[in-house]
């Protein structure tokens, strides 16, 4: 398979993988009449609608903390490219670690990754720092790679997809190549669901396996070859670019305590 993101494509687009984001009223770089609640490509500004079929190639975990006072121009105070150790950049980098391994599980170590009580009301407050999973995906409609940042409440939907792929592996595996990761064989549909939160309306990405038919073996082979390089490219993109606000302070909804499966 030819490199789907070679130097010629880099030169034409400024050097980065496109990021699929959800349009809000103040999203950057979009026409004034662009429909809110639709997905768009950050390089082309193309309207991708409210549904998109993709192949989930890989994931890159991370964290990012913005100032509490919302602005679309906010810069990250602190971030991590692996979800475990801070990068050391940002306007207020923390010493870390973000998380530590304890009894076979990752546990938040940084106070900004922990749930806390409001000092006046006692109400439970979500962490200041957002955990994120950057999906490395293949857009089937456009036959091209892209990234998508999943955070807050959307992590629950992604976690359900992850568990379904894991626990239905016997049913979904390739009959001749059972070691083939099932996420490369079955496409996933991303559907945006409009919801109302404490701070306003937001659109939640829902992830479901498309069970109509598995992908052709030739395409699966090509995607397997491309996945390693695409994941490396994704890991090199700054968390500021991946996580920057899209014109709302409630992207993907408020977290539910204990409901983050990654």
Give the SSE layout.
Layout lengths: L6 H7 L6 E3 L16 E3 L5 E3 L1 E15 L12 E3 L18 E4 L2 E4 L7 E2 L6 E2 L4 E10 L4 E8 L2 H14 L1 H4 L15 E10 L2 E10 L7 H19 L3 H5 L19
Antiparallel strand pairs: 1-2, 2-3, 4-5, 4-10, 4-12, 6-7, 8-9, 10-11, 12-13
What does this structure look like?
Residues 1-15 have low confidence and may be disordered. By secondary structure, the protein is of the alpha+beta class. The strands form four sheets. Strands 4, 5, 10, 11, 12 and 13 form a six-stranded antiparallel sheet that branches. The longest helix is centred in the last third of the chain and has 19 residues, at 217-235. Helices cover 19% and strands 29% of the residues. The protein has helices spanning 7-13, 154-167, 169-172, 217-235, 239-243; strands at residues 20-22, 39-41, 47-49, 51-65, 78-80, 99-102, 105-108, 116-117, 124-125, 130-139, 144-151, 188-197, 200-209. The chain starts with 6 loop residues before the first helix and ends in a 19-residue tail after the last helix. It has a domain at 7-75 and 135-201 and 222-243.
């Amino acid at each position: 398979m030819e490199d789907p993101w070679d130097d010629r494509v880099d030169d034409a687009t400024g050097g980065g993988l496109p990021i699929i984001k959800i349009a809000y009223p103040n999203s950057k770089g979009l026409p004034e009449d662009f429909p809110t609640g639709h997905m768009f490509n950050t390089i082309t500004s193309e309207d991708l609608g409210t549904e998109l079929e993709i192949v989930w190639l890989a994931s890159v975990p991370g964290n990012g903390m913005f100032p509490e006072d919302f602005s679309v121009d906010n810069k990250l105070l602190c971030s991590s490219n692996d979800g475990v150790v801070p990068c050391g950049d940002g306007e207020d980098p923390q010493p870390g670690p973000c998380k530590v391994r304890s009894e076979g599980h990752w546990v938040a170590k940084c106070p900004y990754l922990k749930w806390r009580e409001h000092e006046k009301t006692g109400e439970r407050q979500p962490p200041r720092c957002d955990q994120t999973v950057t999906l490395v995906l293949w857009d089937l409609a456009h036959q091209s790679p892209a990234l998508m940042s999943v955070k807050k409440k959307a992590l629950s939907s992604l976690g359900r997809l992850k568990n379904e792929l894991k626990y239905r592996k016997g049913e979904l595996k390739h009959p001749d190549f059972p070691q083939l990761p099932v996420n490369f064989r079955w496409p996933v549909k991303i559907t945006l669901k409009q919801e109302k939160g404490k701070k306003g309306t937001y659109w939640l990405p829902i992830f479901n396996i498309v069970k109509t038919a598995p992908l052709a073996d030739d395409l699966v082979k090509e995607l397997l070859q491309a996945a390693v390089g695409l994941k490396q490219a994704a890991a090199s993109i700054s968390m500021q670019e991946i996580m920057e606000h899209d014109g709302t302070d409630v992207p993907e909804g408020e977290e539910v305590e204990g409901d983050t499966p990654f």
